[in-house]
Amino acid sequence: MADSAMSSILVLVSLFCARQAHAASVDSCPMYGCRPSGTFSYVLGVTSKVSLAWSKSYIQGPLTNSLGCTANAINVVCQANGLRNEGYVTLFPDNGTAAWYGDVLRRPTLSIIDIYGDVIGTDGHNFVMFDTTGKIVKPQINLGENLAYPTYSLTLSEENGIIAIVSRQGFLITKESNGVPHAAIQFRAEEQRSNGTFLPVAPPVVSGHRIYILTEFRPDYDTQQPNILGMQRLFAIDMKNVMAGRLHIAWVYNFERLNNEEVPNSRKTHQEVSSMFEENRIDSTFGPAPQIMVNTDTNKVYVNLPPPEGATNAPHLLWGFKDEVNGTTPDLIFKTPQSLSNFATFESNSFESKSR
C-alpha cells in the first residue's frame, strides 16, 4: 500500500537561546556529510541552554538519496514526495510554516542554497534555480535523457563556484554558478578485455577545485568474473575555469594494484549511454555503503571501502591518502581492516578539525 510506504519526517531546525528572545540562525545542515568535503561544518560557537523553537511534521514518500534538509537564515528546504506535494518543500525558519513548494522536479537531490536564499536543485533530468519566493529563474536546463539520472546530491567548489553533478551512470557534469555549461566527462574504460564504465558508488567530495569520485567498474555486458566486477578506482579531477582542459584527471588510484600505474582511459562525451541504468544494482548492496571524506585543511583523503561486488571474502578497509594542491600522485598513509558504518570530521571557521 502507498500509505505504508510513506514516512513522517520531523524537521527540527531553529533553536531558541535561553538568554535571547529571538531564534539563533545555525548556518550548518542537520544531515550527514553536508559539506562539499563530505562531513559536517559548524561556523557558530556551540550555544548552551537552548530549547526547541518549533517542529514540523510532513509526509515524505520513499526517496532515493533522501538526506534531509538544507537551511540558512532565509529558507529551510527539504525533499518531498508525498501524495499532494513532490519536489521541494520550503519552510520559514522562524516558525516552520510552509513558504512554497517547488514541484517541477521529481525525487530531487539535496539542494544547494546561496546566501540570498536562492535554491539550486536537480532530479537528474533537469537543473533548476528558484528564487527566495519559489519562482523559477529561467532557463530551466535539461540535462539530457538518461545522462545524469540517478545522481548524487549536488556539490560545488567553494573556490570557483563550479557545481558538480555526479551521475551514477558514470558521468561528471559541471555547471557554472549561473547554470552555464562548464564541461562533462564519462568514465569509460577497457579492463581485462572488457569494455565498460566506472560507475560512482559514493557521494563525491570536493576540496578547493578538486573533486574526488569513488567508482566501481561495470562491464557493458554482464559477467560473472569477480576480478572484473571488483575493480574500484578513486578519481581526483580538477575543475577549472580555463579555456581548455576544464575537467582534468589529476590521478586515479587503483585499489587492486600495488604499483598503481595503470590508469583507466576516460573521455569527454555528451553521448547517451546505450541502455537504462539499473538503479537497484548499486543500492542493493548489503552492509555499509562506501564513503569518501576529505580534510580540506590537511588535504588528506579518507576512503571507507567495503568489499566490492562479487568479492565475498575480501576485507572491509579504511584507506588514508595525502594529496597536494595540484598534485599528480597521492601518498598512501595507511590501509587498515576496519568495518565502519560512517565517519566524520567536524570543520569550523577556526580552521581546526577534530576527527570522530
Oligomer: single chain
Structural category is mainly beta
Helical run tally: 3
Strands, total number: 30
Distance between the termini: 40 Å
* CATH fold-level topology of the domain at 1-142: Lipocalin
Averaged pLDDT: 74
Question: What does this entry look like structurally?
Answer:
- The chain is built from three helices and 30 strands.
- The protein is mainly beta.
- It has a domain of 142 residues: Lipocalin.
- Strands 19, 20, 21, 22, 23 and 24 form a six-stranded antiparallel β-sheet that branches. Strands 7-8-9-10 form a four-stranded antiparallel β-sheet, with no helix packed on it.
- The N terminus and C terminus are likely disordered.
Search tags:
6-stranded antiparallel sheet; 356 residues; Lipocalin; 3 helices; mainly beta; globular; disordered C terminus; 4-stranded antiparallel sheet
Secondary structure elements and pairings:
Elements: H1 2-5, E1 7-11, E2 15-17, E3 23-24, E4 40-42, E5 50-52, E6 56-60, E7 69-71, E8 76-81, E9 86-91, E10 98-102, E11 112-113, E12 119-122, E13 126-130, E14 136-142, E15 155-156, E16 163-166, E17 171-175, E18 181-186, E19 188-191, E20 194-200, E21 205-207, E22 210-219, H2 226-229, E23 232-239, E24 247-254, H3 279-283, E25 291-295, E26 300-305, E27 317-322, E28 331-337, E29 345-348, E30 353-355
Parallel strand pairs: 4-29
Antiparallel strand pairs: 1-6, 2-3, 2-5, 7-8, 8-9, 9-10, 11-12, 12-13, 13-14, 15-16, 16-17, 17-18, 19-20, 20-22, 21-22, 22-23, 23-24, 25-26, 26-27, 27-28, 29-30
Signal peptide: 1-23
Keywords: Signal
